[in-house]
Request: fold
Amino acid sequence: MKKKILIVEDNPQNMRLMEMTLRAKNYTLLKATDGEEALDMAMRERPDLILMDIWLPKVNGLEVTRKLRQDPAFRHIPIIGVTAYAMKGDKERIIESGCDVYLSKPIDTHELPEIITTILSRRQKDNPW
Ligand code: MN
Reply:
C-alpha cells in the first residue's frame, strides 16, 4: 500500500520543491499550509509520516507536533521538523517538541527522499502491521 506523507509548509515555493522531490516516489502526498489545517488533516488522514515546517501561520509546527504527540494514535508517527531559521537552541526545541529528526532549509533534494525511505522502512520492521 502507498505510504501517505503529509507535507506541512506555508511557503508555496518550498511546498512545490518538496512535492517535486517526493512525487517520483510512490507516495500519496497530502498538503497543509498552516498549523490548524495540519492538525485537521493529520487527524483525518492518518499519514505514515509528517514533514513539519516549524514557522507556520495560526499554530506553529512545535505546537502542532506537541498536540499530535499527546494523541496515542500519533505517538509513533515519524515527524520531520524543518526550518530555515535555526538559531541556538532551536534544534533542541524541535526535538523536544516531539520531532524525530530535524532538517534545515533549503531542503537537500537528494537527502530528503533517502531519509524518508530509511525512516519508513525502519518503522515497518518495528511495527509489522
Ligand atoms: Mn514556514
In short: The chain has one domain: 4-126. The beta strands are 3-8, 27-32, 49-53, 79-83, 101-104. The helical segments are 12-23, 35-45, 61-70, 90-97, 111-126.
